[in-house]
Every structure is written in structure tokens, then in C-alpha cells.
Amino acid sequence: MNGIVINIDPTLLRIGHFMLNWYGIIVILAIIAAVVISIREGKRKGISTEEIYSLVPWVLIGGIIGARLFHVVDKWDYYVGNPLQIFALWQGGLAIWGALVGGGIAVLVYARTKHIGLGHLADTLVPGLLVAQIIGRFACIIDGDAVGGATTLPWGFTYINPGAMVPAGLLGVPVHPYPVYDQLWNLVGLAIALKLRHHLKTDGLLFLSYLSIYAVGRFVFTFVRQEKIWFWGLQEAQVVAVGIIVVSAAMFIYLSLKARHGMIRPSQIRR
Q1: Secondary structure of residue 18 in the 3-state scheme
Q2: Are 202 and 264 a contacting pair, CB within 8 Å?
Q3: Residue 90 pLDDT
Q4: Phi and psi at residue 173, in whole multiples of 5°?
Q5: CB proximity list for 178: less than 8 A, separation 6 or greater
Q6: Statement: residue 205 has pLDDT above 50
Q7: Which residues fall within 8 angstroms of residue 128, CB to CB, at 6 or more apart?
Q8: CB burial class (10 A; 0-12, 13-18, 19+) of residue 76?
């Protein structure tokens, strides 16, 4: 059989109606990693551990709602006929763009409520977010819910477990390991972010850089996916990526110009 064979049951444990899935376990590990790293980064940037802990429920709720909403919209043809499956989060189906949008709104509300600089707080979360995304993609590797199209490349993944969530017709067929592409790109993004955090002096620029870098990779690698086309031959993730790149670039230029002309208060500039 061609490709790297993956024969892992997405469900780790079944006891009656109770199911423990790899997806949920890995997502929890990703969240823990993000929190631990954000706490360390917060200490470096003058944000207390208590503030990070207080932020976690906001980001989790906003991120999960956004991630599921984006996924359901993209797969509406399926969920309109299976509405109860919308709430079956343990089976997978969380869109990263949705998590970033929903979580971002939560961070915005939290920052305004607690009177913390939004850019300062967002920059603090960048390393943790990237590590969480890298870990989280292992759930997609096991589930097969984010694979690419068929391929003859030697590193293609061949899913043979009947519980895998690969698209119809691709079970037993070598496919592009899209989650691995995403992980590798996020490793590049993490290396860049760790370097830039010592050079970008204006709050918010690191987060905008992260968004732009991830969006470029997401736009390119999504071409190997087989998802619903929205318009101009682009899938949902690519349409969102284009919007993110445009908005992030514009905001980056705007904040940079304000800082250059002394229009940002000293407290908004990281020392």
C-alpha cells in the first residue's frame, strides 16, 4: 500500500455511551501548552499570572464558538441535514480561523474590561498560540478531518481505519498530509515570532506579523485541500486568509507610522 499508513481509531476508549477521543485529549494538551507558555511570556512582558488565568475562560469560550461556527458554515450542506451533529465537538471539526476570530473577540472584550493594552496582550499570546496550533494538528492527523487531496508523493497519508474522518472516496487512498504542512509552517512562524519579539517595539505588531505569516501559508497550502469553493476558485480558509493579510498589513503600516510620528503613548511601546 502506497503512502504512510495510518490505522488509528479516533476513539481511544468506549464505555457504554461514553467515548474518549484522541481529538479531545490533544486539544486539551494544546490548551495547557498555550496557557503555560503565555504565563511565561506574560511575566516577561509585565502581565501577571492571574491575568492570564482570568483570560483563559474568555478565550476558550470565544475560540470554541468561533471555531465550530466557521466549520459548520463551511460544511453547511452536511449540518443542515444533521443539525444535532453541530454540537458533537468531541468528533472533531474546529476551524482554526474561527478559533482566532472568536478568541480574538474575547481578548478584545477582556482587554477593554480589564483596561489592559490590547496590542500588548495580543503579542503576549503569540508564542503560545503557535505552539498550540502545532500540537492541535496532531488531532487532525489522527482523525483525518483536515487532509488534502489524493497524491502520489511518498509522504502521503493513507487512512485505513473505518473511523477516520477522511472525505468520501479517500479511505485507503494516499492523500496530502495537510496537517503536517500546517505544522511545519507554524514552526517557521514560531521561529520568526521569537526573533521579531525582540525587534518590534510597538505593541500589536508581533500579533499582526503572526496573522500575516500564518495567512500566507494557509492560503498556499489550502490548494491541496478538497473543500467547498466559495468564489474565485478559493475555499473558505483562503478567502479568510486574503482578508486577514490585507487587514493585518494595513494595521501594521498604520501602527508603525503612528509610532514613528510619536502618536502612540510611551506605555503602548514595549521596552
Answers
A1: strand
A2: yes
A3: 59
A4: -110, 130
A5: 140, 146, 147, 148, 221, 224, 225
A6: yes
A7: 33, 34, 35, 36, 37, 38, 41
A8: exposed
Q: Does residue 181 sit in helix, strand or coil?
A: helix
Q: How many residues does the chain have?
A: 271
245 contacts 216 by C-beta, under 8 angstroms: yes
Domain ranges of the chain: 4-196
Find all residues with CB under 8 Å of 28, minimum gap 6, and list them. Answer: none
Q: How confident is the model at residue 266 (pLDDT cuts 50, 70, 90)?
A: very low
All three cell numbers of 220, joined, read 498556499
Task: With beta carbons less than 8 A apart as the criterion, state whether 161 and 6 touch.
Answer: yes
Mean pLDDT value of segment 254-265: 75
Amino acid at 231: F
Neighbours of 170 (CB within 10 A): 19
Helix (H, G, I), strand (E, B) or coil at 228: coil
Among residues 74, 65, 135, the alpha carbon closest in space to that of 100 is found at 65
pTM: 0.85
71-110 pLDDT, tens per residue?
A: 787 776 777 777 776 776 655 566 777 888 888 899 999 9
Cell of residue 84, nine digits: 444535532
